[in-house]
Specification:
Helix 9 packs antiparallel against helix 11. The chain has five domains: 122 residues, 2-Layer Sandwich (N Utilization Substance Protein A, Chain:P, domain 4); 66 residues, Beta Barrel (OB fold (Dihydrolipoamide Acetyltransferase, E2P)), CATH 2.40.50.140; 77 residues, 2-Layer Sandwich (GMP Synthetase, Chain A, domain 3); 63 residues, Orthogonal Bundle (DNA polymerase, domain 1), CATH 1.10.150.20; 64 residues, no CATH class. The chain contains 18 helices and 15 strands. It is an alpha/beta fold.
C-alpha cells in the first residue's frame, strides 16, 4: 500500500515541527469540513475523513434510516438508504458522500488558513510542554535577529526572546553571536516566541558557578543567596558543609582562575564572594565588604531593620557608588540597612538626649491624680508636668469632665511635685557640701578642726619644753603654762587641768610625765 504525496508532506512537517502527524491530519479534515459547510449551506450532519491512500479528504452526510422521514436533513428512508449502502437497516446510519472537487478556490484558501492555524497551535503547545519543564536551565543559543530592543535567539527547535530588561548593560549583540542564557519563563499567551531567556538574572551567575566550581556542583559548598545588578556588580553568599573546605577559596580558585572565567563570561562584571553566616549581624558585616564595620545592631526584628556604624573614612566605601554596595547587601540579607558614621551617631544621640531633657517629666509621676483625670489630660494632649504647670485654672476648666475641685486638686498636686523636687535638689546640694568637709590631702579644713589641731600642737610643744626645763632644774615659764591651760580648756571644756601642770620637781625626784606623756 502506497501513501499519497499529501500524507508524506504531512509526515515530514510533523517531524520538523516536533508535533504529532495526527494533529495535522485532524487540522486538514477540519479545514475541508468548514469549506464544505460554506459551499453546501446545509444543516446536514457533515463529517470528514482523510484517506491516506488517495491523499483526499472525503466528506459525508450522516443520516438515520427511518420508516417515515420527518427531518430530511437528518433522516432518510430505507429505500433511499439502499442506494448508498445495500446493507442499510432501520434505525441505522448511512453515509452519503459529498463532492469536494467543487469547493472552489475560496474554500481551498479557507482550508489552508485553518491548517496553518491548527499547526501553529499544536507547535506552541509542544514548545510549552517541553520548555516549561526547563525553566531555570542554562542553554546555549545563537543571536538570530533584532526586533526593536528585543533580541531573538535560536534554541534549535524553537526561537526565544530576550527583552531589554533581561540584557546586561555591558553587552551588545550581533547576529550570529553565540551566548549563554537561562530560561526564565515560558509565556503561553505571547504572540511571538513564547520562551523568555535572560542574561541579567541572578540565576545565570549561579549556574555559571555550578559549572566552574566542582564543590558547588556536588553540594559541598552551597550558594545561600545572590544579589545582582547586571553589568555592574554581583554579591554571592556561600556556605561550606565541610569544615575542612574553604567556601570562598573554592569559588575563587587557584590564582582566581575559577571566578575569572565567570567574569569573562559576564563581560567584566565585578563579583564579590562572601561567607554566609546564620547570625544577621555577622552576615551584614561580611556583606558590606570591602568596608570595615565597627558595630551592627538590630533596630526592629519584625521589620528586619539593621543599623550599621562605620568610621567616617569608611562611610563612602560602605555605601558604594550611588548606594550600590549597601543596596546589594540589603538584597542579600533581605533586611533594611541604615549606615551611619561615628560622628552622625554621636550627633543623633546628643539630639535624642536634648529632646528628652526638653520633653520634661510625664504626668504619670504626679502623686494624687487618678487614672481618669490623667486620661482626660492626655486626651487634650497634655503629656508632661511642665505643660500642666503652664495652664491657668481657666484653661483647666475648659477640659470636659474637670471641675473646680479637680482644678484645685491638680494645682495642689503639681505644687507638691515641684516642692518635692526642689527639696530633693536642696538635700542633694547639702550632701555634696557635707562630703566636702571630710579632711583630704590638699583640701581646706573647717576653722574648728584647724584651731583644735593648732591647740593640740601647742600643748605638745609646751609639755616638751616643761619636761626639759624640769630636768635642768629650771623653773617653767609662767606664761607658757597659762597658755597651755587656756588651750586645753578650749579644746576639752570638761577637763580642768592636765596632770603635772604647774608643778616644779626637784632634781632628785623623777619627772612623772615626759614628752609624749610617757613615764621616765
Amino acid at each position: 500500500m502506497t501513501t499519497s504525496l499529501l500524507f508524506q508532506t504531512i509526515d515530514q512537517l510533523s517531524r520538523e515541527k516536533g508535533i504529532d502527524a495526527q494533529i495535522i491530519i485532524s487540522a486538514v479534515e477540519d479545514a475541508i469540513l468548514v469549506a464544505a459547510r460554506k459551499y453546501y449551506k446545509t444543516a446536514e450532519d457533515l463529517q470528514s475523513h482523510f484517506n491516506k491512500d488517495t491523499g483526499l479528504v472525503e466528506v459525508h452526510a450522516v443520516k438515520k434510516v427511518v420508516e417515515e422521514v420527518q427531518d430530511p436533513d437528518h433522516e432518510i428512508s430505507l429505500k433511499d438508504a439502499h442506494k448508498y449502502d445495500a446493507e442499510a437497516v432501520l434505525e441505522g446510519e448511512v453515509r452519503i458522500p459529498k463532492a469536494t472537487d467543487v469547493l472552489g478556490r475560496i474554500a481551498a484558501q479557507a482550508a489552508k488558513q485553518v491548517i496553518f492555524q491548527k499547526v501553529r497551535e499544536a507547535e506552541r503547545d509542544t514548545v510549552y510542554a517541553e520548555y516549561n519543564q526547563r525553566v531555570g536551565e542554562l542553554v546555549n543559543c545563537t543571536v538570530k535577529r533584532m526586533e526593536g530592543p528585543d533580541v531573538i535567539v535560536d534554541l534549535g527547535r524553537t526561537e526565544a526572546r530576550m527583552p531589554r530588561k533581561e540584557q546586561s548593560r555591558l553587552e551588545t549583540y550581533q547576529i550570529g553571536d553565540r551566548i549563554r542564557a537561562v530560561i526564565k519563563e515560558v509565556d503561553r499567551a505571547a504572540r511571538g516566541p513564547q520562551v523568555i531567556v535572560s542574561r541579567a538574572d541572578a540565576l545565570l551567575v549561579q549556574k555559571l558557578f555550578e559549572m566552574e566550581v566542582p564543590e558547588i556542583y556536588d553540594t559541598t559548598v552551597v550558594i545561600k543567596a545572590i544579589a545582582r545588578e547586571a553589568g555592574e556588580r554581583t554579591k554571592v553568599a556561600v556556605y561550606s558543609k565541610d569544615p575542612d573546605v574553604d567556601c570562598v577559596g573554592a569559588c575563587v580558585g587557584m590564582k582566581g582562575m575559577r571566578v575569572q572565567s565567570i567574569i569573562r563570561e559576564l563581560r567584566g562584571e565585578k563579583i564579590d564572594i562572601i561567607e554566609y553566616n546564620d547570625d544577621p549581624l555577622v552576615f551584614a558585616a561580611n556583606a558590606l565588604s570591602p568596608a570595615k564595620i565597627n558595630h551592627v545592631s538590630v533596630l526592629d526584628v519584625g521589620e528586619k531593620h539593621l543599623e550599621v556604624i562605620v568610621d567616617d573614612s569608611q562611610l563612602s566605601l560602605a555605601i558604594g557608588k550611588k548606594g550600590q554596595n549597601v543596596r546589594l547587601a540589603a538584597k542579600l540579607l533581605v533586611w533594611h540597612i541604615d549606615i551611619k558614621s561615628e560622628e552622625e551617631k554621636r550627633q543623633e544621640i546628643e539630639s535624642q538626649m536634648a529632646a528628652m531633657a526638653m520633653r520634661g517629666a510625664p504626668i504619670s509621676e504626679l502623686v494624687g491624680l487618678g487614672d481618669k483625670t490623667l486620661g482626660k489630660l492626655r486626651e487634650q494632649g497634655i503629656e508632661t508636668v511642665e505643660q500642666l504647670a503652664q495652664m491657668t485654672p481657666e484653661d483647666l476648666m475648659q477640659i470636659p469632665g474637670v471641675g473646680e475641685k479637680t482644678v484645685e486638686r491638680i494645682r495642689g498636686v503639681v505644687t507638691d511635685y515641684f516642692e518635692r523636687d526642689a527639696s530633693g535638689e536642696a538635700a542633694a546640694a547639702e550632701g555634696t557640701e557635707s562630703q566636702g568637709g571630710v579632711v583630704e590631702e590638699g583640701t581646706a579644713q573647717p576653722e574648728e578642726v584647724s584651731e583644735t589641731a593648732a591647740s593640740e600642737e601647742t600643748t605638745a610643744s609646751s609639755a616638751t619644753e616643761e619636761s626639759v626645763a624640769t630636768e635642768e632644774g629650771a623653773e617653767a615659764p609662767a606664761t607658757e603654762t597659762e597658755t597651755v591651760e587656756e588651750t586645753a580648756s578650749a579644746v576639752e571644756p570638761e577637763k580642768t587641768e592636765l596632770p603635772g601642770e604647774g608643778e616644779t620637781k626637784g632634781p632628785d625626784e623623777p619627772s612623772s610625765t615626759g614628752a609624749g606623756g610617757e613615764e621616765k
